[in-house]
Amino acid sequence: MFQDYLDSPLGIVTVTSRDGVSICDISFAQPQQYPSCAVTKTAQQQLTEYFSGQRNHFDLPLNAQGTLFQQRVWRQLQTVAYGNTASYADIARAIDNPKGVRAVGMANSRNPIAIVVPCHRVIGANGTLTGYAGGLDKKEWLLRHERAL
Predict the structure, then answer these.
(1) Which pTM value belongs to this model?
(2) Distance CA 149, CA 139 (A)
(3) Is 48 domain-assigned?
(4) Chain mean pLDDT for the chain
């Protein structure tokens, strides 16, 4: 395991790699005592640039562990551009599962790569902020930072 962290406007953000070549987790969690590696350093730098307003797109190798359905949802989340939002229904339709809104919500809530896989950009069909593993205050901050609110 490899980790790096940064002190962001939202608190500590920890970046983890299992293999030293791809990111498997970005979360609002305290880091453990693991060494860093090139990919965690790169993610740390890109997140620092994001929080300072210098970056609106990430270029990182990702390796999130999840079911095939979760993987489809997480790939679709990455198409929601900076400064935009989508509803859970939008994501469900985009993955050709229009009745799977709740399943999309569950997959969204299990996204292990916060911010980079932008589950914070998914909102309720009526425009309300709904669920975010990091807390609605963080979701609101991220959307305001991206000028999506």
Answers:
(1) 0.93
(2) 10
(3) no
(4) 96
